[in-house]
Every structure is written in structure tokens, then in C-alpha cells.
């Protein structure tokens, strides 16, 4: 049984929250999945994420606990647990990486600083033009995980967000191993991954919104397959202990 954690504050008002369980249900025909929702306040305790084969940090920010989202990303990154972060998950995973891997402890998210001007510590900033409800092309890096999953160097994806990564901090993140593998036509980062991890992929776009909700996006299929490989490896280690 593959255990997948959906970390986020489940709400019927968030379209992704209704789409994601339905998409995973489609995959149950081929995969033996056990899916759990974990609210972000609960995820502040790393033990709440123990034993999962995959962690998906889902959209829906501002989270009730941004620290819970950050902890979920850290547990997956350091534990080698297959990880997918979409929209708000992309944003909070980058916060985690900046703070805990790059030493940028003051890295902040402008959505939680209402009324304050964006400054040098703002890692996640308000986009000049909101992408909420938009669909746009993404160019992906040859040889990247996202290209292998898509089987193409270009894709058109849907968004529902108003915040993205500040260009001022790209070099710092890249120097510590974050690989930016998806950009829009203006060059703005829309996907990133870690190459020294079994499966770590974050996208500002939302693959869960693709199509009519009956055919899971290749990124989602790839994440579930990686969780299956993790579960098989864990079972083997257990049997050999």
C-alpha cells in the first residue's frame, strides 16, 4: 500500500482540493493508494509525516500554518521522500530550501506581510500580473525530470496564483543545487527540481487543473510512480531487517 500525504488546509472553495482526490482515485485502478490529508498546523510536527511514501504540498495559500508547509517540504527533501509541490507548494518549498539549505533565514513570503513593502528578504513576491485563472506556455529544460515526465520540451499549463519567485534570489538558490527547469516565455521560473533526490519537483502551475479531471497529468502520474518505488524499497528493507 502506497501512502501519500496531501499537506494543505482542505477547503471545498479551492478547486485543486476537489480535483486532487479525484485524480488519485483514477490512479487507484493501477496503484494501491492510501491517501491522507494533513492540515498545515498538524504538519508542524515532523512525526505527522512519518511513514509516507510521497508528500504533495498542495495549493491553497495563505496556509493556516506556513511553517507546517515548510516543515513538510523539509521532511521530504532531507528524507528522500518523493515530493511534489504545486502553486503554494512551490512557493513554500522554495522558502524551506532558502532558509535551511542556503542559510537565507530571513527569506519571506509577501502574502503573509499584508501592508508591508517587499524588501530584500522577500523570496516570494506578488506577481506584476496575477496568473489566477490563466493558461500559458512553459518551456522546459532538456534532460530534466519535468521534460522526461512530459515527453516534450514545451507545455501549456493552468495557473491560479498571484505570487512567484523573486529574480533577485535565483543565483543563491541555484548555487545550492536548486535547478530551474521550467520558465514562461518571459523567462520567469515556473518549475524547479533537485537532481540529487529520488523525486523532487515543484511547479507554480497546477497540473491538477489540466483537462477535465479524468486523466491525471504526467507529473501526477510520475509522482505516484515514484511513491510506489519508495514503498517497494521500504518494504524490501523491512523484509531484510
Describe the structure.
- The structure is a single chain.
- With 241 residues, the protein is an alpha/beta fold.
- The chain has 7 helices and 12 strands.
- It has helices spanning 15-27, 40-43, 66-79, 88-100, 145-150, 170-175, 218-240, and strands at 2-7, 33-38, 54-57, 83-86, 108-109, 122-126, 135-140, 154-158, 163-165, 179-183, 189-193, 200-203.
- The strands form 2 sheets. Strands 2-1-3-4-12-11-10-7-8 form a 9-stranded mixed β-sheet, with helices on both faces. The chain has a 3-stranded mixed β-sheet with strand order 5-6-9, with helices on one face.
- Strand 11 (189-193) and strand 12 (200-203) form a beta hairpin.
- The model has no long low-confidence stretch (mean pLDDT 93).
Strand count: 12
Radius of gyration: 17 Å
Series of secondary-structure elements, N-terminal to C-terminal: EHEHEHEHEEEHEEHEEEH
Structural class: alpha/beta
Major beta sheet summary? 9 strands, mixed
Average pLDDT level: 93
- Helix fraction bin: 25-40%
* Low-confidence runs of at least 5 consecutive residues: none
Residues in β-strands, percent: 15-25%
Strands in their spatial order, largest beta sheet: 2-1-3-4-12-11-10-7-8
Shape: globular
What is the overall number of helices? 7
Q: Give the CA-CA distance, first to last residue.
A: 19 Å
Briefly characterize the structure.
With 241 residues, this protein is an alpha/beta fold. 33% of the residues lie in helices and 23% in strands. The strands form 2 sheets. It has a 9-stranded mixed sheet, sandwiched between helices.
Amino acid at each position: 500500500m502506497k501512502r501519500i500525504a496531501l499537506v494543505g488546509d482542505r477547503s471545498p472553495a479551492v478547486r485543486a482540493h476537489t480535483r486532487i482526490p479525484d485524480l488519485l482515485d483514477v490512479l487507484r485502478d493501477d496503484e494501491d493508494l492510501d491517501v491522507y490529508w494533513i492540515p498545515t498546523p498538524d504538519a508542524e510536527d515532523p512525526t505527522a509525516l512519518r511513514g509516507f511514501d510521497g508528500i504533495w504540498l498542495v495549493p491553497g495559500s495563505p496556509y493556516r500554518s506556513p511553517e507546517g508547509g515548510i516543515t513538510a517540504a523539509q521532511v521530504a527533501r532531507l528524507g528522500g521522500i518523493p515530493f511534489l509541490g504545486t502553486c503554494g507548494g512551490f512557493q513554500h518549498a522554495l522558502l524551506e530550501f532558502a532558509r535551511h539549505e542556503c542559510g537565507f533565514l530571513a527569506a519571506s513570503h509577501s502574502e503573509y506581510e499584508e501592508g508591508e513593502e517587499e524588501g530584500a528578504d522577500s523570496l516570494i513576491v506578488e506577481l506584476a500580473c496575477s496568473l489566477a485563472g490563466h493558461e500559458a506556455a512553459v518551456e522546459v529544460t532538456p534532460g530534466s525530470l519535468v521534460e522526461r515526465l512530459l515527453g516534450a520540451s514545451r507545455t501549456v499549463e493552468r495557473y491560479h496564483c498571484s505570487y512567484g519567485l523573486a529574480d533577485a534570489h535565483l543565483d543563491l538558490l541555484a548555487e545550492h543545487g536548486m535547478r530551474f527547469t521550467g520558465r514562461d516565455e518571459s523567462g520567469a521560473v515556473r518549475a524547479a527540481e533537485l537532481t540529487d533526490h529520488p523525486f523532487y519537483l515543484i511547479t507554480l502551475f497546477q497540473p491538477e487543473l489540466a483537462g477535465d479531471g479524468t486523466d491525471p497529468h504526467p507529473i501526477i502520474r510520475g509522482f505516484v510512480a515514484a511513491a510506489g518505488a519508495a514503498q517497494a524499497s521500504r518494504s524490501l528493507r523491512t523484509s531484510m531487517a
